[in-house]
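Here comes just one.
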Amino acid sequence: MSTETLSPSPTAIDIGIGGMTCASCVMRVEKALKKVPGVDSATVNLATESARIAVHDAGMEARLRRAVRDAGYEPLAPNAAIDAEDASAWAGFGPVGIGLALCLPLVLPMVGDLFGKDWMLPALWQFLLATPVQFVLGARFYKAGWHALLARAGNMDLLVALGTSAGWGLSMWLWLSFLWGGAAEHAAHGMAVMEPHLYFESSAVVVTLVLLGKWLETRTKRQTTSAIRALHGLRPDTAHLIGRDGEVDVPVAEVLVGDKLVVKPGERFPVDGTLLEGRTQVDESMLTGEPLPVTKEVGAKLTGGSINGEGRVVLQVRAVGVDTVLSSIIRLVEDAQAAKAPIQRLVDQVSAVFVPVVLVIALATLLGWYFTGHSFEVALIHAVAVLVIACPCALGLATPAAIMAGTGVAARFGILIKDAQALEVAHTVNVVAFDKTGTLTVGQPRLTALAPVGLTNDEALLLAAGLQSGSEHPLARAVLQVAKDKALTVTAPTDVQAVAGRGTQGKVGERTLLLGSLRWMAELGVDMAPVAAQAADLQAGGATVSAMAEQQAGGVKLLALLAFADEPKPGAKEALATLKARGIQTVMISGDNRGAAEAMAKRLGLDAKDVLAEVLPGDKAAKVAALKAGGKVVAMVGDGVNDAPALAAADVGMAMANPNGGGTDVAMHAAGITLMRGDPLLVAAALDISRRTVAKIRQNLFWAFAYNAAGIPLAALGYLSPVVAGAAMALSSVSVMTNALLLKRWTPEKGGK
């Protein structure tokens, strides 16, 4: 007999990375990390300046950091880029300001030329101004470019270093040649001694423009990470703990499950808990996107990060640290922003060969101009322009910047996009399947009819409430609520068993009871004739009908018929109409009998053909798979544990938060998108932000490619100077980031339109 050893699931390690400048850097770091033994996968994000590595040994972080350093980059704390955003808006501008100050005298002669003035500085002054810019402010380009060469790769820094060094070196050669022979020769022939035209200003200005572009890019990045920073800011540093010596302030990190905490008006709840004392209005807008406060009574669940609106309250801690809802939300947003969209593969493939191709084009430009009769000086300047404008900065930022902005603004409105793949696929969805109970309906059904057989109403109610007194099922709660309203004393059951997709069985006193669907009763051979007509009428009216029976020596005897009614959620009908107006087919999946399901569908504006009724929980995934037949792209929306397989089977799973719990956390893990409010209108909004984000990605990639596709030929043909090329290159990165930031203006309009 062989024993199979299961390998542990991978552990994610996050590392911040400093010094990355373009898509080629991303490729280099990923390659270096994947070479480390024990690494399953590595994803590097240029916009967040971070890497997420999947490993089986959590103790590998030191080796991974060493691999990053050996590749020529600086390993940093995981949230270094986010934590640094608290700095001044002018942080990092110092080198740029110095570069601009030194370049200004070099650029002024260009302005003078427009007015016919000769303001050209002497060569010595040009040298003194340009050299610090080239080798002090531009040292970062040499360092990163050298590491790229050692790794037999290329990046933006290498192109900038080569291009500007060529311009500076050409200027030095022309100047020194003039000093060593040219000036004397002119003087010997009685000619005016005129210094040659130098290109110090081109090299210095290009370095400064690139630095300015990187600084502007960094400022823009601060805005794309604002969603994560806002979520981190929801965590209080201290909590008011009720200890043996009274109320004391302790760090939140020291709070334990079971502790009792005091929260004062206007303070944020430090962790997840249950309300023990007091009554309050809670602002959960940063978590759910819902602007209206929510009333919380004793026993209500409280979420860390939300704001206590009224009075002093006491809570008992339910979850701390990584187990809190807020931590889960932060992790989901970070996962999404760290992930790589499928469309990014194209960028990675291009980046892998981009720099070598550019170097070949630059060399061809140099030789082409030189061998067509032009001076080496002219040929070199055109080659420098090619090197400068070809930097692939924008390519590396095009996708992650849009994903960060899109997922960030979505999170602000209660839409958590778990991964980039879900984001990219969602915009192609043409079928949306909804679970009924708790998703399209309120999920709090009421007991509307009780028809006993051989019992009084109260006797039947006591038996039904007793059997379900330990259940959290919505139908069970409806029965218990009626018993509570009538002040009946309920007997706790024994030997209770849940029969999947059918109902519950157990003992109340000495009686063995079964309560569940009519389909189950038929399977057990229960005689339903006494209530058949009533059951049909109730089902036709849209009620969910169950039956209670007793296991006796002679078989299973019917005791009562129970009917439950649920109400559609506010906005559910409008949400379905919105999706239909967009050409998206909507389907409702329900475990109810067809009559009840179709009655609810009619109230929601759904056609009978779009109703899948009498579906067992285990069969939902199969129904979703059937909907995907014929190339359909299906999104599944559900709210409970039983929806998890269907959410996983769909092209895009959407888990809808259930205020009563009910396994939403399980659904969240199976889904690619989580809707933090139980509002069906968010489904249309999620599809809309997906569509807009993908559109921004495509726009960014188009412009990034367009800059290079148009700029390189223009530079090679001599239409762009190195200075203009440097400005265009810097502008490309900033324009891509700015275009992505336009997503931050998005708001879900009414109906998600």
